[in-house]
Each structure stands twice: as C-alpha cells, then as structure tokens.
Amino acid sequence: MSTWTLHRGEALSVLTGLPDGCVDAVITDPPYNSGGVGAARTSSTARQKYVSSDAKHTLADFDGENRDQRSYLAWMTMLLGQCYRLTRSGGPLLVFTDWRQLPITSDALQAAGWTWRGVVPWHKPNSRPAKGGFRRACEYILWATRGPVDAARNPVYLPGLMSVSQPSGSKRVHITQKPLELMRELVQICAPGGTVLDPFAGSGSTGVAALESGREFVGVEMSEHYHRVAHERLSRTIQHMRSQEELADPRPHQQLSI
C-alpha cells in the first residue's frame, strides 16, 4: 500500500528541510501571480482573480498571489532549485502555468538547473467565451528533467495535449483545482513505485492520483483550510484502496501456530 506525507507550511521553508534525492518526480501547480506588474495586484485576492463575481460557491481563498514579475522569478528559481536538489537523477518536473507566466516560469526552471523538455497544453472544454476574441481555453504544463530523460526506468508514452474540464459543483473544493482525470495521466511521468512531490498540494489532487497509481506522495500546503481538505482526501483514498483490496481478496488472514 502506498504511503503519503503532507506537511503544513510555506513551500520553500519546508523543502529546505528535506533530504537530497528523496523524490522521483515533482508535479506541482504553484500560484501563477499573473498580471503582477504594479499596485493592482496588491489589492486583489486569489478569489477575486479566479472566481467570477456571480459565483455561488464560497471556496476558501489562499495566499501567495501578490508577487510582481521580478519577485516571482526570484521566488520560483529558489523553489525549483530546492525541487531539483530533492529529485533523483533523471527525474521529471511538471509545473503548471498560464500564458502570461509561461516565459518567466521557463526561465526559472532553467536557472534552477532543470533541462527544459517541452510544453504540454491543457485544453479546458468548459472555458468561458471571450467577446471580441478567443477563449482562454488553455493552461500549460512545462516539462523538464534533472539531467537526461530516464526512459529505461519509465518507458511510458504520454500524449502531448490534455483535454479535460475543471471540476464543478460539489466536486470542486479548491479555487484552482485541477481535474483528477488530468492528474492521473500526469503522474505516469513518475517511475512506477516512485515518490511524487507537490510543494503546492492544494486540495490534494496530485496526491490522490499518485496513491491510486501505486506511487508514494509528499505534499506541502500552506493554507490551514486546504491542508485539512487535502489530508481528508488522501486519507479517504487510502481507505478506499484498502477496501478494494479486501473485496478482491476476502479470505481471512490465518495466523500460523507454532
């Protein structure tokens, strides 16, 4: 049975306390801080940015969305540098971004030592139309590795384009929640049985997908609310997996007598 650890704290602070080479892959969705060019970003919260004014849900806000471009580059470089240190040779990095932050995120990962391998578009079919222009129907996943691609250890073939809608209704428990179907596909970039690190665990979708696939998970979440949400989801996932194992093999375990 897979195991998981969920730290609560600021990502960079937590990562500096973890040992070298303790994970096999990093898959994460950091705060994008898009549009952080002036005073406007100091007065808007993540909820004001990502949730429409007519939304009826009351999803909790989160911190970390108020950096300008220079501070975002410096912060991301330090953070991805720690991720590089923690990842075993040949291990992959997948980091989400949007169209505004794609250039600066690619700069940060290369400055941190990663070898940039490509960009995987994530198409969101349920995106809203934009009057007079194009839908903002894509976010992007930057793929990099620590050194050469280790295809011998993980000879997987993955699509170069993902298309799945974000969770809605009762399934949506985080403002920027990524679809579980998407994360189940992405965790395959980690070698089988390996450990996936997510420094921005949010509601725990990366961890759920990792555990379901038989991989280990290490997460970090700063928000007390979302740390609790992720903890509950990860706990339920393990409980469900144990129940499925018992259904598959209902025979009682016999104790040998000596």
TrEMBL record:
Entry superkingdom: Bacteria
Entry's Gene Ontology molecular function annotations: DNA binding; N-methyltransferase activity; site-specific DNA-methyltransferase (adenine-specific) activity
Keyword Methyltransferase: yes
Known EC number: 2.1.1.-
Top enzyme class: transferase
Record-linked InterPro entries: DNA_methylase_N4/N6 (IPR002941), DNA_methylase_N6_adenine_CS (IPR002052), RM_Methyltransferase (IPR001091), SAM-dependent_MTases_sf (IPR029063)
Family: Belongs to the N(4)/N(6)-methyltransferase family.
Protein name as annotated: Methyltransferase
Organism: Streptomyces alkaliterrae
